């Protein structure tokens, strides 16, 4: 798919922007704090429904403005469409509204308007960093592929918040209420585990294949789903039964520690090389290659699922890679239709694919970009 035009109004440091990005690779270059990542963040907002940075949504609205809007005209195999998001200040926070072809729609019906794979420097810690990073990869990928996953995830997150609040309350000893929470958590959580089991089976395959191509079959990359509770079940009923059983057994510990200790909010992905933990024993180079293999696999699954290339959003990440890895990684994304790549120096990117350079300065796109900007 490709974005034919992007319009921002009071989004971050953009007062007003209309941008017609080129096909292929588009490099946004400029010093720090000019608004390069903000453009990628706007595109990610349309794909993921939220920022790729951990931020408060009201932060997305330009200082002192009452509301921000982001809208894009996209072309997919299915035809043309517009997708938009309006964020309005509301109390201490913000309210979001999604639009498709100019009409307000529920987020569930908006999802999938744009699909994107993002890759930011924080992802480089996918192997060594906290499990939350690896769950985030799963959630971003699966929410875009499968609306029902997104609904289940939102419901599950709320249930865990409610259960945690309950466990911290004076009523925490009320086993009947805990059983009620657990029944709902078991039902929704089992669907998440089922979706993650299926996705990880494919992700593991594609990551292993990409990895083997790069390292010549010496080190075999193993990607394994580590659900909470640990289980090998494959069918929905068996997954549900294992989760229900673990929730019941965890109850005394959860009451004592006053928090929800079991369920897919505690899931992880295990990454091994030759059967040994990459996080513990891998060299930095091995860890990095594994991260690239995971990202390449995420991309290929998004591609296969949509039947066309997702947008690629690479925020300051190519400059973190040595030349060999950068080439291997980009070559593995064969056929990308449109990529947005940020860098502080053009030399950091060193792409050999055709690309267009756009200079970003204080919330404006300038210079070489002139012919790419529709104003
Ligand atoms: N809500 C906002 N309103 C106005 N400016 C903002 C807002 N949020 C961030 N900024 C500004 O955006 C700039 C950072 O943009 P960013 O795209 O992250 O920079 P970079 O070019 O380094 O990627 C900073 O100058 C910051 O002050
Ligand atoms: Mg940036």
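^ structure tokens above, recovered residues below v
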């Amino acid at each position: 798919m490709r974005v034919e035009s992007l319009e921002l109004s009071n989004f971050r440091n953009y007062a007003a922007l209309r941008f017609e990005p080129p096909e292929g690779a588009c490099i946004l270059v400029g010093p720090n704090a000019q608004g390069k990542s903000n453009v990628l963040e706007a595109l990610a907002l349309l794909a993921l429904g939220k920022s790729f940075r951990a931020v408060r949504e009201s932060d997305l609205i330009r200082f002192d403005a009452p509301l921000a809007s982001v809208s894009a005209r996209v072309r997919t195999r299915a035809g043309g469409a517009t997708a938009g998001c309006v964020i309005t200040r509301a109390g201490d926070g913000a309210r979001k509204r999604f639009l498709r072809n100019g009409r307000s729609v529920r987020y569930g019906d908006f999802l999938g308007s744009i699909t994107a794979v993002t890759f930011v420097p924080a992802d480089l810690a996918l192997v060594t960093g906290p499990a939350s990073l690896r769950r985030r990869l799963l959630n971003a990928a699966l929410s875009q592929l499968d609306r029902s996953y997104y609904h289940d995830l939102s419901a599950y997150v709320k249930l865990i918040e409610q259960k945690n609040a309950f466990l911290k309350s004076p009523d925490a000893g009320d086993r009947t209420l805990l059983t009620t929470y657990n029944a709902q958590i078991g039902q929704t959580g089992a669907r998440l585990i089922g979706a993650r089991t299926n996705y990880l089976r494919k992700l593991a395959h594609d990551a292993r294949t990409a990895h083997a191509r790069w390292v010549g079959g010496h080190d075999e990359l193993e990607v394994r789903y580590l659900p909470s509770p640990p289980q090998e079940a494959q069918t929905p009923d068996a997954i549900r039964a294992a989760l229900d059983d673990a929730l019941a057994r965890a109850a005394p510990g959860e009451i004592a520690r006053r928090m929800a200790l079991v369920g897919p909010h505690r899931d992880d992905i295990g990454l091994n090389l030759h059967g040994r933990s990459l996080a513990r024993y891998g060299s930095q180079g091995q860890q990095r290659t594994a991260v690239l293999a995971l990202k390449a696999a995420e991309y290929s699954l998004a591609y296969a699922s949509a039947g066309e290339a997702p947008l690629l959003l690479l925020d300051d990440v190519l400059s973190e890679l040595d030349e060999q890895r950068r080439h291997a990684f980009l070559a593995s994304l064969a056929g990308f239709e449109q990529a947005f790549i940020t860098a502080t120096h053009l030399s950091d990117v060193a792409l050999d694919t055709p690309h267009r350079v756009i200079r970003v300065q204080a919330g404006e796109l300038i210079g070489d970009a002139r012919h790419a900007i529709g104003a």
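Residues 1-113+312-375 form a domain with the Rossmann fold fold (CATH 3.40.50.300).
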